[in-house]
Structure formats: structure tokens, C-alpha cells
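Example for tutorial group B:
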């Protein structure tokens, strides 16, 4: 019975192949050498057709494989993008692995091939969207030639451009909300984000003091004076903004500029800015 099925299948394949070959032969006949009479030719398109079909199938298979390889290489990035969106929308606890996989267009099993747990997926998101920035910022500050005041202005501006204005800033809001429920992730975030960020700000302030540009009474707490405005802007974007009246909006660039100038010059009137100084200048 097995042999009869095999013969039937082979016969079906042969009939289909010869039908295709015959159709191609009638449209484009090709001559072949006849072994019995080497100087004469016969029409035998089926061999050519078979070779062409084999090459076509092989080429198609290579194209499919190449597309699969490209898709495989892009898949981690697609999973991280989907995870970031869901973490910001729903929070860490409420986001399920199968939701991330579905949004990325893959199976849950495929997700776990790249990231063994939801915790590892979250860590990968933080590293990809935030942690990698600190190296480039440190390199930029190494070659910065302006004043330290300009460096501080630049620091806060590029933070908004590269982190604050993007979906990645929602990770900060997530950590503020859920850090105590996930102490391991809180420790990870502290190591990957908080400490490097504080180190950069400390470096800027120390530069200003060393160059005689800044007068800092308490360096460790002065760091919070720089980070606090950025934290507020993040919360406005992802949370507090929903509580504000519709006609109350904040222009991020204007807000950052105002905060930087307040940090640099304070609220107190300086001697050169006082009304008396202006009156003396007019005389």
C-alpha cells in the first residue's frame, strides 16, 4: 500500500512537470544534441526547463532566507519598541509578555528567545533608550569649549531633546510609581540611570567651581536643583498634565530656559540689576 501511494505521488509530480515543460517548449523551443547522431539536433525543452526551474527555486529560497535573516536582526528592536510603548502606557506590573509579543507581531515564545523574562526585557529597554546616552554625553562634555553656564544650558536642552521629549521619559514616571514594588528593578535603575546622571551633573558643577564661574554651597544637594526641574517636566508630560486646566500649558523649551537662568542667577536682585544702578548709569 505504501509503494502504491509513493508511485501515485511520483506519477502526479511527473505529469505536472511534463505539462509545464510542454507549455514552455511550445513557446520557446531549444535544440539539444542527439547522442545517436552528434551532428543533428532534437528539441528537448524539458531538460532546460528543469534546470531553469531548479535555479528559480534556489534563487527564491535564497531571497526568502535573506528576508528572514533581516527580519531576525530587526526583531529585538521591534520588541523593545513595543515593550517601551506598553510599559509607558500601562506600567510594568500591568504589562504582559504576550501583549508585547502581539504588538511586535511575534509569538510569546519568540519574545522569550530574546529576553528570558519581563524583568530582563525592561532592563533592555532602559539600556537601549537611556543608559546608552551617558557615554555620548560624557564624550561631548570632554570637548565642550564654552563656559560652564553654557554647558549647563546645553545639558538640560539635550536632555529634553533626546530623552524628555521622547517616550523614554515615561520610564521615569513608571519608576516613581512602581519602584517600591520591584526593588530589584529599582536597584537596577539606580545603577543604570540615577548614578550616571548625577555624576554628569556633579562634573558640570565641579567644572564651574574650579574655573571660578560657580559658587556652590553644597555640591551634593545642588545636583538636585538641576534634576528637579527635569523631573517636574517629565511628570507634566506623563501624568500631572492631565490634572491641569486645558488652557494651562507649558512650553518645554521656555520652561527649561527659565529654570536654567534661575539656577545660574537666582531670584535675588543683583547690584548691577537694581533700580539704583540703572539710575546711576543714566547720570
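The residue assignment follows.
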Amino acid at each position: 500500500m505504501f509503494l502504491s501511494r509513493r508511485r501515485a505521488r511520483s506519477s502526479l509530480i511527473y505529469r505536472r512537470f511534463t505539462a509545464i515543460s510542454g507549455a514552455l517548449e511550445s513557446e520557446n523551443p531549444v535544440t539539444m544534441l542527439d547522442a545517436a547522431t552528434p551532428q543533428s539536433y532534437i528539441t528537448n525543452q524539458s531538460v532546460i526547463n528543469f534546470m531553469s526551474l531548479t535555479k528559480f527555486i534556489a534563487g527564491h529560497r535564497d531571497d526568502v532566507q535573506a528576508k528572514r535573516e533581516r527580519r531576525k536582526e530587526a526583531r529585538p528592536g521591534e520588541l523593545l519598541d513595543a515593550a517601551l510603548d506598553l510599559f509607558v502606557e500601562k506600567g510594568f506590573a500591568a504589562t504582559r509578555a504576550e501583549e508585547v509579543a502581539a504588538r511586535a507581531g511575534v509569538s510569546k515564545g519568540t519574545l522569550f528567545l530574546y529576553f528570558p523574562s519581563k524583568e530582563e526585557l525592561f532592563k533592555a529597554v532602559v539600556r537601549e533608550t537611556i543608559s546608552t546616552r551617558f557615554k555620548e554625553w560624557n564624550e561631548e562634555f570632554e570637548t565642550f569649549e564654552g563656559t560652564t553656564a553654557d554647558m549647563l544650558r546645553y545639558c538640560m536642552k539635550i536632555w529634553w531633546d533626546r530623552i524628555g521629549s521622547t517616550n523614554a521619559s515615561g520610564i521615569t514616571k513608571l519608576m516613581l510609581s512602581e519602584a517600591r514594588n520591584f526593588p530589584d528593578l529599582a536597584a537596577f535603575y539606580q545603577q543604570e540611570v540615577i548614578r550616571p546622571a548625577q555624576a554628569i551633573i556633579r562634573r558640570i558643577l565641579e567644572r564651574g567651581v574650579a574655573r571660578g564661574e560657580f559658587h556652590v554651597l553644597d555640591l551634593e544637594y545642588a545636583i538636585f536643583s538641576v534634576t528637579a526641574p527635569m523631573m517636574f517636566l517629565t511628570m507634566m508630560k506623563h501624568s500631572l498634565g492631565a490634572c491641569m486646566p486645558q488652557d494651562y500649558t507649558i512650553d518645554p523649551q521656555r520652561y527649561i530656559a527659565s529654570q536654567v537662568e534661575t539656577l545660574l542667577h537666582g531670584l535675588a536682585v543683583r547690584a548691577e540689576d537694581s533700580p539704583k544702578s540703572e539710575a546711576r548709569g543714566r547720570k
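Residues 188 and 194 are 9 Å apart (CA to CA). Compare this with the pattern of hydrophobic and polar residues in the output above.
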